[in-house]
């Protein structure tokens, strides 16, 4: 029976080859299997059903801005742990674990960049850091982005994602809603445009403040948006909510979101919007 045996050079029947972990990724919607490198080249959008996987701030910088134009600001800001909060561990130790795990210092990255050679003030939240929850540092960095837009006479762009306010900081976290909203009013008085880009998910305190106050509000397809969960809303209004009431598409139908834009088209959409406004920034 020797002739049934394989005699391929270098092949060992007792040796098993292990497929490296993370090489293939399954789509959460249609179960299609994607080669990770190819999926990332398409900015993590499923080629079969157009499902948008979550991506971090670096990918949004690559997607939206001119190459090598982003300059980060406000990296020195740190929370003071005003409540000395402790659950299983002290709050500051909890933050440090997330910094090591995510490679991020906080849940938002802010700075300036160019989009089609147009200077903009930019903030991007990243869900890898405690679900992009909003604490005092997040609120302060977003506020400084707004102030920078006023000082430099540039448009403001915020890419929002969040699970809500960071309750380890209590009222100090909730105060960021009022602070950021106040400064957006001042931005509006200066007649400078603000484009809010909503990604999956954008919820609770962030959605109830700066994320929903854009002059232009764009959203990625299928993003989960809203303030409270279905059960809380239904108990409050004593009514059954329609299917998909927290989807970006539902918000567009009700006029709360201006346009649902596929991720790969976001840069073009921003360029088209900014072209409506004169460039007031200092050429220098």
Provide keyphrases for this structure.
284 residues; alpha/beta; 2-enoyl-CoA Hydratase, Chain A, domain 1; eight-stranded mixed β-sheet; globular
What structural class results from the helix and strand content? alpha/beta
Rg, alpha carbons: 22 Å
**Number of H- or I-type helical stretches:** 9
Shape: globular
The parts where pLDDT drops under 50 for at least 5 residues are: none
List the domain count as a whole number.
2
Multimerization state: single chain
CATH architecture of the largest domain: Alpha-Beta Complex
**The named CATH superfamily of the largest domain:** 2-enoyl-CoA Hydratase, Chain A, domain 1
Task: Sketch the major β-sheet.
Answer: 8 strands, mixed
Order of helices and strands: EEHHEHEEHEHEHEEHHEH
Q: State the CATH class of the largest domain.
A: Alpha Beta
Report the strand count.
Answer: 10
Taking the alpha carbons of the first and last residues, their distance comes to 82 Å
What do the pLDDT scores average to?
Answer: 85
